[in-house]
Amino acid sequence: MTDEDGQAPEDDQAPIVPRGYNLAYEVVARRLERRIRAGEWGYHMPLPSEPALAEWYGVSRTTIRSAARLLEERGMVEVISGRGTYVAWRPDAS
């Protein structure tokens, strides 16, 4: 079984391969959202740093920033300049 990224859901570190209209930052945002919803990071917990996420997913820091902005628009995270990105989503709030 594969997800919309064409990868097995448990294969979070599979290479980011944008397909069709899916841009790299959208793929990263979907994977991060899946990890947040799975409880990997709890409410108000920080996500790993941009460099760490960029290395994990094999993308640029710009791609990670774009993914974080998209997740912020969706209410999943809060980006605090100079401090990091924190989970804003609560399981009971969906």
Brief sketch in words of this structure:
This protein is mainly alpha-helical. It has helices at 24-37, 50-57, 61-73, and strands at 77-80, 84-87.
Give a verbal description of the structure.
The chain has 94 residues and is mostly helical. β1 (77-80) and β2 form a beta hairpin. α1 (24-37) packs across α3 (61-73). It has a two-stranded antiparallel ribbon with strand order 1-2. Helices cover 37% and strands 9% of the residues.
Overall number of domains: 1
Low-confidence stretches: none
Query: Beta-strand level of the residues, as a percent range?
Result: 5-15%
Q: What's the CATH topology name?
A: Arc Repressor Mutant, subunit A
- Secondary-structure-based class equals mainly alpha
Name of the level-1 CATH class: Mainly Alpha
Q: Can you count the beta strands?
A: 2
* Silhouette: globular
Number of helices: 3
Features:
mainly alpha; 94 residues; single chain; Arc Repressor Mutant, subunit A; two-stranded antiparallel ribbon
List the SSEs and their pairings.
Layout: H1 24-37, H2 50-57, H3 61-73, E1 77-80, E2 84-87
Antiparallel strand pairs: 1-2
